[in-house]
Structure formats: C-alpha cells, structure tokens
Design a protein that fits this description.
single chain; 135 residues; mainly alpha; 7 helices; elongated
Length: 135
C-alpha cells in the first residue's frame, strides 16, 4: 500500500472512531497504536508505553489535579469565611477596612488554594452573605 493510501485510511479510521462517539484524544491514540502495530515493526510499540510513562511522570502535570482538589476542599470548608472574619477583625478600623479585608483575604486564599475560581467562590460567598459584624 502506498503512503497516500495509508494516510487516507488513517484519516478515515480516525474520523470513524471520532464519529462513533469516542473522545478525540482516545480516538487519535487508539487509531495511531493500531496503525503502528500494522505498518511498523513490533519494537516500535515499546515507544508508546515509554512516552506515556514519561508524560505522566511530569511533576507539572501532577500538580494540576492536586491544586484543583486543594482549592475545592478549601472552598467547601469554612476556611474562606474564617480568613475573611479574621482580616475584617484586624482591619475594621482602617478606612475602607472591609474592602482592604477583601483584597487581603483574596490574596491569602489564592496563595493557599492556587485556584482563582475557588478563591472567587469562597471569599465572594463569605463577603456577600456572611459579612462579619464589627468587634
């Protein structure tokens, strides 16, 4: 089979896999592995497992779901409201203390969570609904 025929059959197989409802990433990967098994030596399939392992061992990719989990856990707990209440108690005598407390609470919470949506959710809910009373 010519290179053009292999490329055409690869494209059609990929389109068929995607239109069958398979997610795009899995369709591309599965069709590529099948075509590697058919048209390349068997030793080339070892590179697939090696590349997958090297990409999954990346510390950058590992930190993304952990930051999301940490932000969700902090957002569901009372940590945002407690942080906001403490900063409001410390800064209530400063002119614009409530706004300053909001800014500092957002900065500290973002540093803890690493997630801007979790910060907006937790501090925004605390600031809007549960505004602490002046001590």
């Amino acid at each position: 089979m010519s290179v053009f025929g292999i490329g055409l059959s690869y494209g059609l197989a990929t389109l068929f896999a995607m239109f069958s409802g398979m997610p795009i990433a899995f369709a591309l990967g599965a069709v590529a592995v099948v075509f590697m098994g058919i048209y390349m030596p068997a030793a080339s399939l070892d590179t697939v497992t090696q590349n997958v392992y090297e990409e999954m061992a990346s510390i950058t990719l590992l930190s993304i779901p952990l930051f999301i989990l940490k932000g969700a856990a902090i957002g569901k707990s009372r940590a945002g409201q407690d942080l906001y209440s403490a900063l409001h108690a410390w800064l209530h005598r400063v002119p614009g203390g409530l706004g300053v407390a909001n800014v500092f609470a957002c900065a500290l919470f973002a540093a803890m969570a690493g997630s801007s949506p979790a910060t907006c959710s937790a501090i925004g809910r605390s600031a809007f609904c549960c505004r602490p009373r002046s001590p």
